[in-house]
Amino acid sequence: MSHDYVNILGVPFINTSFAEMESILTNHIDKQEKTFVVTANPEIVMYAKENKDYQKIIQSAHYVVPDGNGILLAANMLQKPIKERVTGFDLTMSLLEEGNKKGWHVYLLGGREQVNKRAAENIEKDYPGINLVGRHNGYFDWEDGQVAEEVAAKAPDIVLVALGFPRQEEWITTNYHRFSKGLFMGVGGTIDIISGEMKRAPEFWQNLKLEWFYRLLKQPSRWRRVLVLPQFVKQVRQSRKRD
Ligand code: UDP
């Protein structure tokens, strides 16, 4: 099936509803097809624009989904509206639900040790049908490839990679050749939420499209990242004029 895409500053976003995306990914997992998903927000798009290697990584993904209201705003500015926001958090939750019914094998990579451990415990408690085949914190030596070998040996159906961007996407592409199957998705701060370490922005903030502001209040160290947003809007506006 061919899909509709919206190109935002060089990043091709798939344009589906959340339910459609969920069913596309479920289908790949059921068929044991190896799949790479990027959940991208304006920070990622801007970073990819400046870093060609990272841009290539993003473009090599099977699907780039719009994880951020800024992406929907940009799509509207380009007069190519995207149907719905598809966040890494929501996708993770719905895939865990599905996996709970189907007995999928899941590997949890990333986060600080305590966060990773607690997130794993919560998944085992809340989704007893899932087989959590392994976990590892996100602070390890990439060079020796040991963690990647472990993931490859366990051949999970889903590998949740929470190393923050751009590391999570880099780790996935660097090691992709080792894996025979599985859905590989960079999920950033989702692991902090599953572990209970961080709270997702309440709906009130989400509805006002101010989730980014809520996160900034909770983690003031993120201020630098927010600065990228006006720049993002400006560049999308400029790209519209060029087209
Ligand atoms: N993280 C990690 N290894 C690293 C850097 C980050 O495991 O080398 C984890 C971090 O502990 C956190 C998650 O990645 O649990 C998401 O980090 P961040 O909020 O920076 O992600 P982003 O929003 O950039 O995707």
From TrEMBL:
Its EC number is 2.4.1.187. Pathway: Cell wall biogenesis; teichoic acid biosynthesis. HAMAP family: TagA_TarA. The keyword Ligase does not apply. Keywords: Cell wall biogenesis/degradation, Glycosyltransferase, Teichoic acid biosynthesis, Transferase. One of its GO terms (biological process) is cell wall organization. It comes from Cytobacillus kochii. This is N-acetylglucosaminyldiphosphoundecaprenol N-acetyl-beta-D-mannosaminyltransferase. PANTHER family: PTHR34136, UDP-N-ACETYL-D-MANNOSAMINURONIC ACID TRANSFERASE (PTHR34136:SF1). Transmembrane segments: none annotated. Pfam families: Glyco_tran_WecG. CDD domains: Glyco_transf_WecG_TagA.
